[in-house]
Design a protein that fits this description.
293 residues; mainly alpha; disordered N terminus; Hypothetical protein af1432
């Protein structure tokens, strides 16, 4: 890996760790997370009770309804109420979605042309919905977890923007001429990459280890130790947004496919995989229309 820093500008890993250790204190949404968790853990909680609590946050309602009406979810009926969305998605998935969306909301970046919040959200939800659909189509039983992992896979990128803004600009400059990949530039200027940053935060929020491992290795799922299939599903969905040029995110311009997903997900060979990817093109286009609405 190319290292463009001189000794006096070499990334200070102690500083990185110190700043990262403050990130956990930044999100200001623990109240709704605790309320949703407590309600779901209570066997007396009904969809209508949970729905009333979630309905206090209209932004959250809109996002959950968008997710429930995803063409990639394949639900034949229009989901127009939060109560029905909870029934369709299930209590546990709603809990994970609320956790993920609350975390994303607390770290939202607005009003700056160097970070396109809308494209980031579009890419995140499209990757999540696609990963879940692929998991369902291939017969994996972890489609709820894979959705949440897909939603959060690039969580480290807005964190780098918000808390390491100077390094963020250096990363953008160094990748504009394609001499470095984004991962290389992150390591070069920050001493840590966005996968590690995202992993650090979800560990602080006590997300399941399976989701944390997906975030850690979503660019190279063959390195995952315990959750290769889950990680490969998110990696493939992430790659498909780039390959199909639908819902792609600039940070993935220099990313490549880990060909070992063919073996991990039992997808035959490269020709089969290519046909598999393009068979989802229409669904991706439909999903993008729903998100934009």
């Amino acid at each position: 890996m190319t290292n463009g820093n001189s000794d006096n500008t070499k990334p200070n890993n102690d500083r990185v760790q110190r700043i990262l250790s403050t990130v956990y204190n930044v999100p200001t949404v623990p109240k709704i997370i605790l309320e949703v968790s407590n309600l779901i853990d209570n066997p007396k909680t009904s969809a209508s009770i949970l729905g009333r609590m979630i309905s206090h946050d209209q932004g959250l309602v809109t996002k959950i309804l968008t997710i429930a009406n995803s063409p990639l979810h394949g639900i034949p009926r229009r989901v127009s109420t939060i109560d029905f969305a909870i029934v369709v998605l299930g209590f546990n998935q709603v809990k994970n979605i609320v956790l993920a969306l609350s975390m994303m909301e607390s770290l939202k970046v607005v009003g700056n042309r160097k970070f396109d919040q809308k494209k980031y959200w579009t890419h995140s939800i499209l990757t999540a919905a696609a990963a879940k659909r692929i998991a369902d189509d291939l017969g994996y039983q972890t489609s709820g977890e894979v959705f949440t992992a897909g939603l959060l896979h690039d969580l480290g990128i807005p964190i780098i923007y918000k808390f390491f803004n100077d390094e963020y600009k250096q990363i953008l400059n160094s990748t504009s001429n394609k001499k470095m990949t984004y991962l290389e530039a992150e390591e070069n200027y920050l001493g840590i990459n966005h996968q590690e940053v995202g992993r650090y935060l979800v560990d602080q929020w006590n997300f399941p280890e399976s989701i944390a491992e997906v975030i850690s290795f979503h660019h190279q799922p063959s390195l995952a130790e315990k959750n290769k299939e889950l990680t490969a599903l998110v990696h493939l969905a992430d790659y498909m947004t780039k390959q199909l040029m639908i819902g792609e995110f600039s940070w993935d311009e220099t990313s490549t496919l880990d060909n070992k997903v063919i073996e991990i997900l039992r997808l035959g060979d490269e020709e089969y995989l290519e046909n598999f990817i393009y068979s989802y093109k229409e669904l991706f286009e439909e999903q993008l229309e729903v998100i934009n609405i």
